[in-house]
Amino acid sequence: MLNNKTGWLLLILFTLAGSWLSGLSHAFLALVMILFALKFFIISYQYMGLRFAHPFWRYSINIVVLGFVSVIIFSSL
Amino acid sequence: MKFKSQKVAYYFFALSMLLFSLQIVYGFIMAFAHMGFDGLHEWIPFNAATATHKNLLVVWILSGFMGAGYFIIPDESDTELWSVPLALLQFYSFAIVGVIAVVGFHVGWFEGRKFLEIPRPLDYLVALNVILFLVILLMTMFKGKKRTTTAWVLTSGLVFAALLYLPGMIWFDNHTVDSFFRWWVVHLWVEGVWELIMGGILAYLLIKLTGVDREVIEKWLYVIVGLTFLSGILGTGHHYYFIGVPKYWLIVGGIFSSLEPLAFLGMTLFAIQMYRKGNKKHPNKLAIYWTLSTAVVSFLGAGLLGLAHTLPGVNLYTHGTLVTAMHGHLAFWGAYASLVLAIISYSMPLMTGRKIFDNTIGHMAFWFANIGMIGMTMAFAAAGVAQVYMERIMGLEFMKAQLEIEPHFFVLIIAATVFSIGVTLFIINFLKFGSPVDEAIGQGEEFSALQTS
Amino acid sequence: MSSEQHVLSREKNDILHPPGGILIWILIFLEVITFMIALSVFAYMRSRNAAMFAESQAMLNPLLGTVNTIVLLSSGYFMAEAVRKLRAGLLKLSVRYTLVTILLGLVFIAIKSFEYSQKIEHGIGLEYNTFFTFYWLLTGFHLIHVSVGIVILVFIYFSLRKGRYDARDHEDVETGAAFWHMCDLIWMLLFPMLYLIN
Fold it and tell me: Could you tell me the CA-to-CA distances from A22 to A16, A31, C45, C58, C62 in Å, in that order?
């Protein structure tokens, strides 16, 4: 179960992984963006308490973030 | 009307109506000139006409705002105006400066900067005048027992508007720097601080007319207005596109000005929502019509038509053409002219005791003016697109393109005639109210039971 | 059900009351969308001039960026903990965590300033090229948000110390925390786009 502490560990892990992967090759673009989207979700759902919010807010943030990330990923292909 | 001193507002509203009529006359002069009938050229050349047309617009709307301030602030602060003689002094000096400026335009006494044509000595008088106005309002507020959010937002809008007049008075030798600050005056007004004034007046009207809880209206409207205001400050960057400033203004102006319609949309939906939520019992139907049309038409004119040419890629072609005139006319009409007409429609019955709430002339005025203005906007749009195509894409010379689009001004004049009929009917209604009387005190108090559902 | 879930569950399924208040969430959405629009324009510009963007990106320091990301994320963690402790009634811990949040926020600003000063030393300003125009504008606007967030947190810190909030009444703290987390959210978009991917 995710809590603030495990959330923080994941955030740091994803940050380091993202920096490392992007340093290896630019082919990892999609992966890096997905890692950062995951971090976005950890912050909003866990830290900001969005997981207790009305579905409207959860769906809205999902759509906005996934929309943006897919635009960036697909436009780079 | 709660207080005797609120009657001062009438003078400003009357001046508004007078200047508005004059503005329309100058509009016709220019429309005919565009068609080739420039018989008045000797006395009113085009540059004088356009300067007069635009400055009268700003001045009559400001006059309306001042009237609104004198009407709303005593009501909201629950006290008489701080000083009626000073308010009258402010009114007369305002009118006199206005007349001198307009006459000056016809004898060649003006600065050639768009919207800031008023010569420098008069600038100082305007500044003094506005300071006096603000002092009266602030003293009234501090004298009163209540200080509502609405009163604060309205007053701060007026204070900021006054402060933003100053950058236009500084002398710069560099044309680009001068242009940069010139946009701070009228355009940071209309996209920024006037939104605060608009928010204050709209909130006041919605509280009075819909009967929805003050708290609900204030909280929401100010969020929306705040967003408009914030996006508007950097959105003003869309005036900087091709005037010689650094390139990053393309990005800043493009992004922030694209956000402005969102806030306007919020305002429209909110006003309609409040009306539907309200008890719909207030008898002053005309004021409700004008209030809602302010919300709707400002979205169409300022929001959508602004968005139509705010992106740098589009603006590259439309900059400084009649497309701007299209946007400008509906935006000013929707956002600010309708707002002044709304507060006039609301306050006049209360000041005079004559219950002209729902008469045929009033409704005809509303529909003629709005339909006429939309027709004018369409005529400008057609002319503007044709001008852009011929001038910027085909590379025709400016005057040759102007010759080609002459027929569009015929349509414009027809639509403008419909519009003028509407405005004339509004003014007839205004005159029917007569002048305000002391007996009208307490007028409208019977509606206060309708408030706060 | 933990106490935290209990406090939050009263707001569940209420569209008008997301955690921290609806107004801050409207603001968050507008902010996030604004930055996304800017980043989309950035991505479009990059697709038109990939070589120049790659060259310019190589001039950034990804190590500093990564460190700063970790600093910001950690401050977010402490803020979330501060709110959690407050809900549990542990006021003293809440005050302490808020202070740590503020200090980490200041560290972020310090590192960012160092990065900026290096850029300025090398003569890389706002108008160096399109990439750096975006770099300065995006990180600059983000930095403004961080600074505003710190001012908000300082207010909250002093109010907490005065005991203005408790386990039941602390919506202002939640709102301020949401603003602070928003800075993290924006940085989660900016950092990979500007520093990492190409």
Answer: 10, 9, 20, 12, 10
Check which CATH number belongs to the domain holding C64 and give it.
1.20.120.80
Q: Which residues of C touch A9 (CB under 8 A)?
A: none
CA pair distance B302, B285, nearest whole angstrom: 25
What are the tens digits of pLDDT across the range C96-139? 999 999 999 999 999 999 999 999 999 998 888 889 999 999 99
Amino acid code (one letter) for C50: A
User: Domain range for residue A10?
Assistant: 4-76
Question: Cα torsion for B113, B114, B118, B123, to the nearest 10°?
Answer: -80
Which amino acid does the sequence have at B273? Q
> Looking at the 3D structure of chain B, how many domains does it have?
1
Q: For the domain that residue B94 is a member of, what is the CATH number?
A: 1.20.210.10
Helix then strand count (H, E) for chain A reads 3, 0
Give how far the C-alpha of residue C166 lies from the chain's centroid of Cα atoms, to the nearest Å: 25
Asked if residue B404 lies in contact with residue B390, where contact means CB atoms within 8 angstroms, the answer is yes
CA distance C73 to chain B (A): 27
* Closest chain B residue to the Cα of C126, Cα to Cα: B248
Residues of chain B with Cβ-Cβ distance to C130 below 8 Å are 247
Cα-based distances in Å from B99 to B53, B93, C81: 13, 10, 65
Beta carbons within 8 Å of B229's beta carbon, 6+ residues apart = B192, B193, B195, B196
Q: How many domains does chain A have?
A: 1
Contact assignment for C77 to A23 by CB distance below 8 Å: no
Nearest CA in chain C to B253: C38
Number of B/C CB contacts below 8 angstroms equals 32
Which residues of chain B make contact with C133, given a CB cutoff of 8 A?
247-248, 251
Name chain C contacts of B258, Cβ cutoff 8 Å.
37
* B248 closest CB neighbour out of C30, C37, C133: C133
- Is C157 at the interface with chain B, CB within 8 A? no
Give the structural domain span for B195.
4-450
Q: Could you tell me the residue range of the domain that residue C168 belongs to? A: 3-196
The total number of structural domains in chain C stands at 1
State how far Cα C69 lies from the chain centre: 10
Could you report the per-residue pLDDT of B287-346, keeping only the tens digit for each? 999 999 999 999 999 999 999 999 999 999 999 899 999 999 999 999 999 999 999 999
- The answer to ipTM > 0.90 is yes
Q: How far apart are CA A13 and CA C70, in angstroms?
A: 10
Mean pLDDT of B367-376: 97
Specify whether the CB–CB gap between B20 and B71 falls below 8 A: no
